[in-house]
Amino acid sequence: MTDPFCGVILNPYCSLDCLFCNHPPARTPIKESRKALRLALANVDSLATQGYHNIEISGCDPAETEDIFALLKSIKKARFKQIMLSTNGVRLADEPFLDKIVGAGVTIVRLPIYGSNARIHDSITQTAGSYDDLIQACSTMSKRKYRGLKLIFTTLLMKQNKNDILDTVRLAAKYRPHSIHVSIPCIKRDGESFAIPYRTMRRYAKNLLSFASRSRCYVDIKDIPYCVFGTFSNLIRFSRPPNLGKYNQPPKSLRTDIKNLPSYRYKVKMKYCALCSMDPICPGFYKNYISAFGDPKLKPLQIELP
Ligand code: SF4
To answer: Are 111 and 87 in contact (CB under 8 A)?
Structure first.
């Protein structure tokens, strides 16, 4: 999947209340939902003219509204090849709903998994039963009839699951996904309650990298700079925001000087980055982590770039 994805957003409602998310779990009023759908549909039309073949539907949570089908209809009409649905998975345990989603053209499902058991996963989603829903959705998707549907897992290394993160990835791998992406949560507010300072995340990040390099399933680690690991690896990657088009740009309060990039994803470099051999290929640290925890004072790398 090297062809770039563009993206549309639907934010109707989410039945989870994840620690790192500041989207209220309350349902969006009908009038606003109508407007959100109109904007998403306009975005599909506009993105379709820009030559993209792949599109991602994300938001909080796009599958928790029947509007998803109007959106999928318009995406299918615009002839996108790969349609990725990023969802909390709550509705995918329902087989008739999953059939309808696949029938409407979804080719990839991206699911978050935060723990290898209900205690940890639900403590992060702050929603009892969310782990059971997710596991049920994964079992349903394992059925033969969904063979053509690609599954991608995402997980986040954070305070609540740092000692469970390898087991979380192992559990995800059991469902034979296309890939597993491990990252860290962005800080929008109250980062201290869930985020791990870069310096402290070092040992967990190194264990993850060692696991990823041995895993038969494709596991990559995203948005953690090389100096945290103390080495270079092709499995350390950095995400780029998809083109969110004219109509789904971040709200004004979160916009940055970079198109499509909300302020909580903004990255900065430290002075010592200029001495690091990874400087040309590393985007640096999340600015909000530096604001919350200060300079991590990590050692710049002095190794030859491959
Ligand atoms: S460029 Fe800076 S943030 Fe990136 S690996 Fe080097 S020291 Fe770390």
So the answer is: yes
Determine the residue of 229, 233, 236, 270 to mutate for testing ligand 1's pocket, defined as the one with the most ligand atoms within 8 A of the Cβ atom: 270
- Facing residues of 180 across strands? 153, 219
Q: How far apart are CA 241 and CA 161, in angstroms?
A: 25
Going from the Cα of 3 to the center of ligand 1, the distance in angstroms, rounded, reads 27
**Percent of the chain at pLDDT above 90?**
80
> DSSP characters for 250-283?
PPGGGB-SSTT-BGGG-EE--GGGGG-TTTTT--
| DSSP assigned state of 57 | E
Which amino acids bring their CB within 6 angstroms of ligand 1? 225-227, 269, 272-273, 276, 278-279, 282, 284-285, 298, 300-301
- Contact call for residues 265 and 286 (beta carbons, < 8 A): yes
pLDDT tens per residue, range 250-276: 888 889 999 998 999 999 999 999 999
Helices and strands in the chain: count of H runs, count of E runs: 9, 10
CATH architecture of 5-254: Alpha-Beta Barrel (3.20)
Question: pTM of the prediction?
Answer: 0.94
Task: Give the per-residue pLDDT at 305.
Answer: 76
10 Å CB burial of residue 15 (0-12, 13-18, 19+) is middle
Work out the end-to-end distance of the chain between its first and last CA atoms, rounded to an integer number of angstroms.
23
DSSP E strands, 18-81: 54-58
For residues 88 and 305, give the distance between their C-alpha atoms in angstroms, rounded to a whole number: 38
Both tokens of 26, joined, read: 């309350």
> How far is 291 from 263, CA to CA, in rounded Å?
13
Q: For residues 98 and 260, give the distance between their C-alpha atoms in angstroms, rounded to a whole number.
A: 30
Cα(219)–Cα(153) distance, rounded to whole angstroms? 9
Domain boundaries, the chain: 5-254
* CA of residue 280 to ligand 1 center, whole Å: 9
